[in-house]
Design brief:
The complex is a heterodimer of chains A (408) and B (233). Chain A has 408 residues and is an alpha+beta fold. Chain A is built from 14 helices and 14 strands. Chain A is elongated and about 105 Å long. Chain B has a 6-stranded mixed β-sheet, with helices on both faces. A 4-stranded antiparallel β-sheet of chain B has the order 2-1-4-5, covered by helices on one side. Classes of the chains: A alpha+beta (408), B alpha/beta (233).
Chain lengths: 408, 233
């Protein structure tokens, strides 16, 4: 059996080589099909591994609680809120929490000035625990300290993008900026985090939570966001469930009423992105497999022509002793090798294409080819080769030697 | 015991509602080292005879024993094996594989015997040397003259050391000078002990053979040396 396989491969390679151009054109359908599969997979894989990394850096073990008002209620002028009392409650009674921090977004202006430069940024009031919860670290200066909150210091920590927008010096520590008409001293610069989905994560300004509250005046209707990170042993679902119960009680919600807040995990966000990417992969994969099908039919077509063309040769081989399986194997392996060759060329081409795409579009993640996609591409093209090679090969093997010898 | 035993072989073809009797009751014994010619005009049944003898086709009725093997019961694969082991074909139009070299063509029947490449090469080289073509081994058929091509075909027939060599109009596509050379080669092979069966319509060729069978309308019209006598007298 092995001998037959080996000999068939040898003569198949000779035949493919002898008709170089025709072989290439025959397998072009497979080349294009596999190249597009690999290009698509390499780009989406690169994207999803990039997103995975990004969310890991967000703090995969973190929860975000924010208020949620259904659209209908918004129309009625009802607004759900998370209050400092909720924060108080959760930090006292929540279980499995490693650190917790409120985030209060600037209510009105988010304008920052330095000298003649003006910029807009996302300004958040938070506490020292933000560092751990959001995995944001300092490249120079210091982070927020507990005492900053107690004494409502007028200090700020800025992201790299803000520093750049305001033309601040390389080390902006000890410079003063104007935020909403008040002077703030910069005490720290955050490490750059890069973009996520085209949005900069370095365009932020942090200040102490209490300072932000005092800036907003004596508003009773403060709506804060709470971010917390879990202790190593805590289960996300269990903690989320417990917090839900706590907050529902605090907000006096009856069992018929829906939650007026949402608890979001980084994992949930990631799953959403992942499912979008998977969807795209499946849809494009479907389109591409049609092109592989067409490629397979192309191979079958040429193999059928080739069988007719070589009828006399088949007759000769049968006359000098070739059995059915010798002829069958020869044509089947020729079809298989043709499409595998196309698969290999397509693999190289697709990888090149994927790399080209990810390199030409700025801030696009690096393409990466997982091993399974190589196996998939070669497996599928091999399958196509066998599937569409069977018919011509069987036709060749079933030829009558006398008729085949007489064929002109 | 005879190498080939044919007993009341018939071969009928259906052509529309007519039945054509291509062979109609043939009884022949061929012995080892026979040098036999089938002659006859076209339509006499000699091509059908060749197909049956060469195990390319099966008789409608009758018994065929080749080298002790009962051939008429075999299926296509078994017939392929018998052809590979027992028969060396030499065709009028040479029937070489166009994309293989002379050496490759001679090695081809050995592929079906699962003989390794190195040994195949040695055996094929021996056969090519025997027909005087050891300097043309890497030429493609279209780079060879007609006579050389027929020599390659003869080497391909010889390489399997078959029990019979079966030649169908072996000089039909050759000029007279080359024809003589090929027939001399046949004579030598006969002298070396091979069994040769030649199908031809040329008396010139048949004259080389030791036994001539003339066919007419699917029957044996004349067997043995009597025909030769008739021609020479």
């Amino acid at each position: 059996m092995f001998f037959v396989l080996f000999e068939s491969s040898r003569s198949a390679l000779i035949s493919i080589y002898a008709h170089g151009l025709r072989s290439f054109l025959t397998t072009l359908g497979i080349v294009i099909g596999v190249a597009s599969v690999i290009a698509v997979i390499s780009v989406t894989e690169g994207m999803s591994s990039f997103i995975g990394d990004t969310f890991a850096s967000l703090g995969s073990n973190s929860l975000t609680i924010r208020s949620y008002t259904p659209f209908e209620d918004q129309m009625k002028g009802i607004r759900a809120r998370l209050t400092p009392e909720d924060l108080e409650l959760i930090s006292r009674r929540g279980e499995g929490i490693a650190s917790i921090t409120p985030i209060l977004y600037a209510a009105r202006s988010s304008q920052i000035k330095f000298g003649s430069q003006t910029a807009f940024s996302q300004i958040m009031g938070t506490t020292y625990a933000f560092q751990e919860v959001s995995q944001s670290y300092i490249s120079s200066g210091r982070f927020l300290a507990p005492s900053d909150n107690d004494t409502r210091r007028r200090i700020a920590i800025i992201g790299e993008k803000v520093r750049d927008n305001l033309n601040l010096p390389e080390n902006p520590v000890n410079e003063y900026v104007d935020i909403g008409g008040e002077w703030f001293k910069i005490v720290g610069l955050l490490e750059p985090k890069g973009d996520i989905m085209g949005q900069s994560r370095d365009d932020i300004v942090l200040m102490p939570y209490a300072t932000m509250r005092s800036l907003q005046g004596n508003q009773a209707r403060t709506d804060i966001q709470i971010q917390l990170s879990l202790s190593a042993t805590a289960e996300v679902d269990v903690v989320a469930q417990q917090l839900t119960t706590l907050l529902r009680n605090a907000h006096d919600l009856s069992s018929e009423e829906d939650d007026d807040f949402t608890i979001q995990t980084a994992e949930q966000l990631m799953e959403t992105f992942d499912s979008i990417i998977n969807m795209v992969t499946i849809v494009i994969g479907g389109i591409v497999s049609i092109s592989l099908l067409v490629g397979g039919i192309g191979i079958m077509n040429i193999m059928l022509v080739s069988v007719t063309e070589r009828t006399r040769e088949i007759g000769i081989c049968k006359a000098i002793g070739a059995k059915r399986h010798h002829i069958l194997m020869q044509f089947l392996i020729e079809a298989l090798l043709l499409s595998l060759l196309g698969g290999l060329i397509g693999l190289a081409l697709g990888y090149g294409l994927g790399t080209l795409i990810s390199n030409t579009i700025p801030s696009f993640p690096q393409a990466s080819i997982p091993l399974w996609s190589i196996a998939l591409a070669l497996g599928f093209s091999g399958f196509v080769g066998v599937l569409f090679g069977i018919l011509p090969a069987a036709k060749a093997a079933n030829l009558d030697p006398i008729d085949a010898l007489r064929y002109e | 015991m005879a190498l080939i035993e044919l007993k009341s072989i018939t071969k009928y073809y259906e052509m529309g509602d007519q039945i054509v009797r291509a062979l109609d009751g043939i009884d022949i014994d061929v012995f080892r080292n026979d040098y036999l010619a089938f002659i006859g005009s076209s339509g006499s049944g000699k091509s059908t005879m060749l197909n049956i003898l060469g195990c390319l086709d099966k008789p409608t009725n009758g018994q065929y024993h080749l080298n002790g093997k009962n051939v008429e019961m075999m299926d296509q694969n078994e017939l392929s094996e018998v052809r590979n082991l027992e028969i060396g074909f030499i065709f009028q139009s040479f029937n070489l594989l166009p994309r293989s070299t002379a050496l490759g063509n001679v090695m081809q029947p050995l592929v079906y015997r699962n003989i390794r490449l190195k040994q195949r090469k040695e055996m094929a080289m021996d056969a090519l040397t025997r027909v005087g073509l050891d300097d043309r081994t890497h030429h493609l058929p279209n780079q060879l003259s007609g006579g050389q091509r027929q020599r390659v075909a003869i080497a391909r027939a010889l390489v399997t050391t078959p029990s019979i060599l079966l030649a169908d109009e072996p000089t039909g596509n050759l000029d007279s000078k080359t024809s003589i050379e090929i027939m001399q080669l046949f004579d030598e092979l006969h002298a070396e002990g091979h069994t040769l069966i030649v199908v031809t319509h040329e008396d010139e060729i048949a004259r080389h053979c030791k036994r001539v069978i003339e066919m007419k309308d699917g029957k044996i019209f004349n067997d043995s040396d009597t025909v030769l006598d008739a021609v020479t007298h």
